[in-house]
Amino acid sequence: MTSRNLRLRRLSRATSALSGRKRGAQPKVVALGGGMGLSASLTALRRITGDLTAVVTVADDGGSSGRLREELGVLPPGDLRKALAALCGDDEWGQTWAQVIQHRFESKGDLHEHAVGNLLIVALWEQLGDHVQALDLVGKLLGAHGRVLPMSAVPLELQALVRGHDPERPEEIVTVRGQATVALTPGEVQSVHVVPADPPAVPEAVAAVLDADWVVLGPGSWFSSVIPHLLVPELLDALVSTKARKVLSLNLAPQPGETEGFSPQRHLEVLGRHAPKLALDVVLADEAAVPDRESLADAAKRLGAAVELAPVASPDGVPIHDPELLAAAYDRIFRMHGRIGPWR
């Protein structure tokens, strides 16, 4: 038995003991992703459950996060900060702190464009020497409605194989390095992988997935925020073996560069290629963003999932998720598609 499988078995036994306890009236939900897509899910999910954990990608290498990562050798804090801000409440305390940690300095010096929350998180990492303990402390300060965890204990480099990166060589496949570059790359992304290739998962993140009632993946940048979670072996093993039901939330529109021209079903096909053993239960999509419902249903079926169409986009026409509509869609899915714990 490999050391990874042994650790997974131990975590499974630990979470089985947790699962034996009487669950509350709310589902245990784990949301995976990064950036604004994960923030959209968390803002919705905190409205319907008080037992919420975010597992966040740590491959960002741009902006303030990239500078701190390069200078100090730390995990990139930006996506973790955004998740914490999304979990802040709608009261005055929560909204004030959400604005504070999202605030960016403007100057002509080294502080320019650094986010307050990034500096706070890194300072606590240095003080406490523990990623999880520091993030829990920030969450306590903010009054966050949930927990935020990094998916891996080491910063990752995202690499993509891209066809037609050079327009003059449309069939050539090259390697593009760095999350910020992959997100905006010209050409067609064929696949992504991370360096190191076998990164350690954060044990608390694995345990949360194994003990969840529902796991939510997406929405978000497909190759740079959603799929990277499937590239951490221990985390993928947990996603495959968990008894939790899994819902994949699709984007409202293709992302320029990274998934330009992708149909909704193409997103599912790409995800399936990266994690062929991963089965899903539900694929959630905005009803106005699916031109070919039959093809999407076929693609979802190959992953073991049913399609749920719902109006989840902002009514003003901007391609962003509306928190209340998305919350209503998640709540309906949790109620209709079976459950493990006796919530509700």
Short synopsis of the structure:
This protein is of the alpha/beta class and 344 residues long. Helices cover 42% and strands 15% of the residues.
Protein topology:
Layout: H1 3-19, E1 29-33, H2 35-45, E2 52-56, H3 63-72, H4 78-86, H5 92-102, H6 116-128, H7 131-142, E3 147-150, E4 157-163, E5 173-177, H8 179-183, E6 188-195, H9 203-210, E7 214-217, H10 222-226, H11 233-241, E8 245-249, H12 264-274, E9 282-286, H13 293-302, E10 306-310, H14 323-336
Parallel strand pairs: 1-2, 1-7, 2-3, 7-8, 8-9, 9-10
Antiparallel strand pairs: 4-5, 4-6
Helix pairs in contact: 1-9, 2-4, 2-14, 4-5, 6-7, 9-11, 12-13
For the secondary structure, the number of strands is 10
What share of the residues lie within helices?
A: 40-55%
Whole-angstrom Rg? 19 Å
Regions with pLDDT < 50 over 5+ consecutive residues? 3-23, 340-344
Report how far apart the termini are: 40 Å
Order of strands across the main sheet: 3-2-1-7-8-9-10
From the structure above, extract its key features.
three-stranded antiparallel β-sheet; 14 helices; single chain; disordered C terminus; 42% helix; 15% strand; alpha/beta; globular; seven-stranded parallel β-sheet; 344 residues
Describe this structure in words.
With 344 residues, this protein is an alpha/beta fold. The protein is 42% helix and 15% strand. The protein has helices at 3-19, 35-45, 63-72, 78-86, 92-102, 116-128, 131-142, 179-183, 203-210, 222-226, 233-241, 264-274, 293-302, 323-336; strands at 29-33, 52-56, 147-150, 157-163, 173-177, 188-195, 214-217, 245-249, 282-286, 306-310. The strands form two sheets. Strands 3-2-1-7-8-9-10 form a seven-stranded parallel beta sheet, with helices on both faces. Strands 5-4-6 form a three-stranded antiparallel beta sheet. Helix 4 packs antiparallel against helix 5. The radius of gyration is 19 Å and the shape is globular. The termini are far apart. The model is unreliable at 3-23 and 340-344 (pLDDT under 50).
